[in-house]
């Protein structure tokens, strides 16, 4: 023991080893048997409150072994497992096992990656992680940036940098009062809801968002985009940025990024890409065409905790010219701050974004990138896409399913009772209701977890495969599960109507 002080928080070495190994054993068993468990138990908040009890904060401390065993038990028996091979809801991936070990290691050393002097090696590792992420998706390794908590924060971090770069220079001191013309931003109507929060948070207001319609493939209509920018300029607004989506959250569509890039160049606008979900697929050589234009982005948001399989939380903002981050988030001029004797000036991450004290998120991403390698990601992401296409094809062939869309690793489809062809509005409404209650049933049932998408007014089931445990067999099995539950639900609803 390195210290003589007796505190209730210390754990002696022998005990730490014993309970630590027990925990590792339990986690190893959990990973090994996850597919035998239900995806979720579907228990209600009230049931769960009863299980954990309603007692007040303990007055006296308890044995570590006892409380850790209890917590392990609670988590393994009452959680929803996004690492389950039949979990396809929203965009939440199976976590990489090495990420769990990395978080343990990071928490043990606990570097504060806000300042270089507090986290010398961690800062260098984060820098390298950011560079590798840029290389992985195929943009210049000179992009700079930082890790944040997720896609929302990654987009916010870029949004404020864009506002600082394009709004009147006095905005940092004077605030929005200095802005004579309404600042406007452009994105497709499929853009994730972070944009609403950003417009509120950074003072533009949600009326500043120009929601551009999409074409038949769910991509932003770039002609309407350009017309809208022109109309705003004529109306004395000041357009500042366009947001392209690389993998929209509902259907996985990737905007025509090259087209957006040239519009941004023509009108001197900041080009941001929200690639929180989809941009890792740019690693696949066959998809080069789909992602053409990303090299022109002024900023990119991506989420290692989605398709790169990092455990929550890990998002990343990449900025082509990282000085924009310093200009936005550092309170001192760049040149004065860190004149070190080193050939490379120290990077203090608190000057790159919103956080001051920062955890070592980069470690889990850095280690996973090394374990898997570029080729490993090409393989895994490619397989996820192939499984999604298989799901779409099986739905397409099935007489009681209608396949709707398939992009990247997202398939949407719906259940339609045999020989049921909706002709009237009422029948279309019924199908929407049927699929909604089918989804609720499936989400509670624990056999498979899907989410929903509304595509051209149709309520669809949506499967997003960012799951390295999923196999062909799982896809075939869920088709049977969905049809089976769909029939039951249809019969149930019919009886209710009668
Ligand atoms: C998931 C997602 C977000 C939000 O990311 P969080 O990590 O949940 O904050 C933003 N945009 C897109 C396109 C996404 O898929």
UniProtKB/TrEMBL annotation:
UniProt entry keywords in alphabetical sequence: Aminotransferase, Decarboxylase, Lyase, Pyridoxal phosphate, Transferase
Pfam families: Pyridoxal_deC (PF00282)
Example GO biological process: amino acid metabolic process
N6-(pyridoxal phosphate)lysine found at: 306
SUPFAM superfamilies listed in its UniProt record: PLP-dependent transferases (SSF53383)
Family listed: Belongs to the group II decarboxylase family.
Protein name: Aspartate aminotransferase family protein
Species whose genome carries this gene: Spirosoma aureum
């Amino acid at each position: 023991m390195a210290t003589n002080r007796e505190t209730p928080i210390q754990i002696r070495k022998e005990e730490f080893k014993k309970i630590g190994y027990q925990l590792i054993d339990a986690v190893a068993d959990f990973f090994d048997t996850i597919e035998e468990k239900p995806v979720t138990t579907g228990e209600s908040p009230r049931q769960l409150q009863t299980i954990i009890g309603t007692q007040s904060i303990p007055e006296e401390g308890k044995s570590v072994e006892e409380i850790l065993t209890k917590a392990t038990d609670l988590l393994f028996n009452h959680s929803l497992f996004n690492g389950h091979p039949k979990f396809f809801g929203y965009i939440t991936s199976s976590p990489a096992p090495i990420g769990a070990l990395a978080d343990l290691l990071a928490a043990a050393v606990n570097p504060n990656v806000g300042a270089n002097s507090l986290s010398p090696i961690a800062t260098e590792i984060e820098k390298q992680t950011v560079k590798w992420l840029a290389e992985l998706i195929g943009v210049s390794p000179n992009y700079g940036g930082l890790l944040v908590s997720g896609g929302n924060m990654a987009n916010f971090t870029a949004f404020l940098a864009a506002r600082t770069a394009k709004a009147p220079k006095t905005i940092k001191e004077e605030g929005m009062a200095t802005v004579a013309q309404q600042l406007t931003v452009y994105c497709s109507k499929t853009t994730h809801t972070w944009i609403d929060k950003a417009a509120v948070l950074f003072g533009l207001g949600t009326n500043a968002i120009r929601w551009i319609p999409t074409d038949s493939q769910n991509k932003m209509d770039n002609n309407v985009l350009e017309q809208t920018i022109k109309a705003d300029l004529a109306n004395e607004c000041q357009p500042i940025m366009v947001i392209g989506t690389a993998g929209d959250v509902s259907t996985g569509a990737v905007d025509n990024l090259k087209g957006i890039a040239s519009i941004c160049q023509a009108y001197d606008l900041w080009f941001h890409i929200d690639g929180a979900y989809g941009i890792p697929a740019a690693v696949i050589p066959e998809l080069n065409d789909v992602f053409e234009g990303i090299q022109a982005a002024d900023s990119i948001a991506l989420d290692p905790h989605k398709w790169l399989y990092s455990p929550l939380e890990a998002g990343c903002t990449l900025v082509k010219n990282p000085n924009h981050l310093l200009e936005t988030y550092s309170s001192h001029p760049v040149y004065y701050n860190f004149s070190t004797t080193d050939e490379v000036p120290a990077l203090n991450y608190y000057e790159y974004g919103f956080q001051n004290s920062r955890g070592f998120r980069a470690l889990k991403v850095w280690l996973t990138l090394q374990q898997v390698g570029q080729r490993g990601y090409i393989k895994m992401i490619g397989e996820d896409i192939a499984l999604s296409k298989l799901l779409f094809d099986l739905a397409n062939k099935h007489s009681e399913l209608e396949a709707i869309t398939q992009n990247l690793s997202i398939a949407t489809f719906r259940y339609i009772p045999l020989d049921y062809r909706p002709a009237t509005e009422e029948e279309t409404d019924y199908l929407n209701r049927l699929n909604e209650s089918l989804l609720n049933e499936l989400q509670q049932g624990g056999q498979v977890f899907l989410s929903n998408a509304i595509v051209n007014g149709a309520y669809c089931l949506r499967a997003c495969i960012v799951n390295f445990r999923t196999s062909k067999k799982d896809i075939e099995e869920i088709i049977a599960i969905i049809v089976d539950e769909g029939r039951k639900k249809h019969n149930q609803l019919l009886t209710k109507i009668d």
